[in-house]
Amino acid sequence: MFIVDSVNACNVTAGTLRPAFITQTQLNGTGTSLSYGLVKGANATGVRRYCKGKFPAGATLDNTFVQVSSVTGSCNRTLVAGSTTATAGGLCGVVEALVSNPGNANAGSKTSQDTCPACSGDFRGADGHIDSFSSNTSCSAHDAADLGNFWTLQTP
Q1: Are residues 104 and 59 in the same domain?
Q2: Phi, psi for residue 151 in degrees, rounded to 5
Q3: Does 89 lie in the same domain as 27?
Q4: Whole domain around residue 93: which residue ranges?
Q5: 118 and 60, same structural domain?
Q6: In terms of domains, do 124 and 61 share one?
Q7: Dist CA 72 CA 113 (whole Å)
């Protein structure tokens, strides 16, 4: 496994991350490592273009992580707790109006800045769902609050 300090400097060093951390970070897009801070899988960054020819032997996009300064989604925009979502469609910048279920009351809006492949399937009886970005750093999914039961409208 390899760590790139940034896509600007392109310094690549060998490193160690736990396999479960690697899997979860590649799924979520960004992870917080105790040794390297915020990291993102190389495939989800511009490292291929900016650091071309600077990878040591054995380093690939699949086994390399890039240190980043903020948590970003697949749209490569900074995620903001309480206002950013991930959806199955993953359309960057789409505003989703949240409508309460039941009641059909306007419950605000959030902007999609990330993909969520698992969001398209059955989820607790719903046809799909959105994930709301949280700044909670807990390692347990049960420690993050549930957004609630809403249906959404995508607005231009």
Answers
A1: no
A2: -110, 160
A3: no
A4: 84-155
A5: no
A6: no
A7: 8
Give 5-14 pLDDT, tens digit per residue: 988 899 999 9
The structure tokens 């049960």 sit at 142
pLDDT for the residue 111? 82
What is the token pair recorded at 52? 């071309």
**Residue at 71: amino acid letter:** V
Q: 98, 107 in Cβ contact below 8 A?
A: yes
Strand ranges across the sheet with 2-4: 12-14, 2-4, 64-67, 37-41, 30-33
If we measure between CA atoms, which residue out of 29, 43, 27 comes closest to residue 118? 27
Domain shared by 56 and 101, yes or no: no
In Å, how far from its chain's centre is CA 117?
Answer: 11
**How long, in residues, is the chain?**
156
Inside any domain, residue 76: no
SS3 label, residue 41:
strand
User: pTM score > 0.85 for this model?
Assistant: no
DSSP secondary structure letters along 97-145: EEEETTT--EEEEEEEEEE-GGGGS-BTTBS---EE------S-GGGSP
Q: Report residue 117's pLDDT band, with 50, 70 and 90 as the boundaries.
A: low
Residue appearing with tokens 């505003």: 95
Q: Residue 142: inside a domain, yes or no? A: yes
Side chain identity at residue 147, one-letter code: L
Q: What are phi and psi of 148, to 5 degrees?
A: 120, -175
